[in-house]
């Protein structure tokens, strides 16, 4: 994988939320004297619509070329991870395309636009979606910039082999997508902008926890250059592009829980040698990671609400070629300890 000269950026929306709404029913009984007939009040009928179900199969779209490649890859990943696939939204398409063209025109990367600039369509990704009459809830925007020979799938793989962008790409309550691709900029790079939204912010994944690489995944990435990602998840360790570590492994408990995440065990083991791999464990400031874990536990330097229930295991060195790795994470939820195990196989 090429690393020099490209980057990925993530914008998080303050409008993102995952909630569980219970249909409340009220019933009451009333009575007068002993000989009075008993009366009951009818159960109140909830007017709230049922929670939408995740999309479990590959949606159709009108995309072609790089757009179709990106659409296929991100949905393959989401389905494998057990979260809803994303259906095409023409409004989000227009917003994402406008931003990709803005970035190329000004030879920039990132999420914000200046109203003084040519091709301005909105200060941030939410504004740009609203300007295109998007009526649902905007979730996140992820942007990648790479050499012109990168495919749409390669652009998505940059996000899937990261920390913050990985969670953004797999956000469980998203179910709509817009994709924009720029022409080559003055220095020959192409920007690919993805904006996601949801028709129901209560949307849940097929199962929790959400892990990546997905269980039984093959040909997974082996190495990661933290300085490529903006913001950098390891700024004190990976101070420049020459520092390479292993590809991040993600574990996310139920994202809708308010109780802080407590992790009592986390390990990554090479199945061939049975050797635990030296890792950094990146945690949110509200999460608790047991001191008994044999790893360097680091406080997330760029905390966000959507990562409160997640930890990332980042191997200190690149993973071996075509090797099976077993992951075990034990966490406590409402006083009950739960162990999750899964495995993946690296590529070349």
UniProtKB/TrEMBL annotation:
Record InterPro entries: CAP_dom (IPR014044), CAP_sf (IPR035940)
Pfam families the UniProt entry points to: CAP
Coiled coil: none
Domain SCP, residue spans: 72-182
UniProt superkingdom: Bacteria
CDD domains: CAP_bacterial
Protein's name according to its UniProt entry: Uncharacterized protein YkwD
Native source species: Pigmentiphaga litoralis
